[in-house]
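Consider the following input, taken from an annotated entry for Short-chain dehydrogenase/reductase SDR (Sulfobacillus acidophilus).
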Amino acid sequence: MTVWNDQVIIVTGGSRGIGYETARCLVGAGARVLLVARDPVATANAAATLSQNGPGEAHGLAHTLTGCPEDGEAVCRAAFQQYGRITGLVNCAGGASVGTPLGLDWRRWQEDFTVKFWGYLSLMRAVVPYLRQVGGGAIVNVAGVTGKDPNPRLAAATTINGALRGLTKILADEVAPWQIRVVNVNPGATETALLLQMAEGYARLDQISPDQALVRMRQTPRGRLTRPEDIARLIRFLLSDEAGMITGTSVDIDGGIHRGPA
Ligand SMILES: NC(=O)c1ccc[n+]([C@@H]2O[C@H](COP(=O)([O-])OP(=O)(O)OC[C@H]3O[C@@H](n4cnc5c(N)ncnc54)[C@H](OP(=O)(O)O)[C@@H]3O)[C@@H](O)[C@H]2O)c1
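Applying the prediction step yields:
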């Protein structure tokens, strides 16, 4: 059984949305969490609220992921300085620009890759030596179901999530001898601030209103959007000892949107 108050977990993108709910779920179980996001006030406030509610605690680190290896190193160093050990990582900082392969602005392609592909890789590479120090641990990447079901209007997210699927598989093989697991979580459309940005993007592309775009996104087989707390509970499970045989794979959490082979 997982002893949560022994766990020290880095959650990037922890100031709001899926990352914040994940941090809340982990602190609620007793873990110590380092939240990482750009906005120093939002990050500090999120950490303070979580620590007040306990029983675990959270510390906020304002850091901008810029696509360099030094990002992961700086974040891991901060977590180690704060808590003296690291047992897990949740990569969740990122966005999803709306646009087709030809239509999406080059700068947005680069920005999305910088944060979500290079950012995730930088954290994964940096955390491995810390996980080895404590005899193993788990890495969960919040990817997205577009990595399995390509969405032409989410060109960058589709490409990044597909790349993360492949990377998760081969990294999981490489780190398995050190008792480290690597798993992707694939949300479908999820109720966060990012979803509203996506609805505005779809509305522009399709010349409909953002509300109409949201109605379309809500049409999942389950009849509702995924909620951040649905994903948070899944991530807590994947980080726990109960998930000890789950590695090198992707778990969809999308209310049944995914159409291809399971
Ligand atoms: N919502 C969905 O429908 C959905 C579906 C599939 C996958 N996902 C994926 O789930 C993850 C979380 O999405 P979300 O919906 O929770 O988004 P969100 O509510 O917009 O939260 C994004 C988080 O990432 C942080 N962040 C963004 N850029 C950053 C940077 N350069 N450096 C450090 N932190 C940064 C943000 O804080 P600051 O702005 O302060 O930096 C915030 O904490 C993303 O990878 C997204 O692609 C979301």
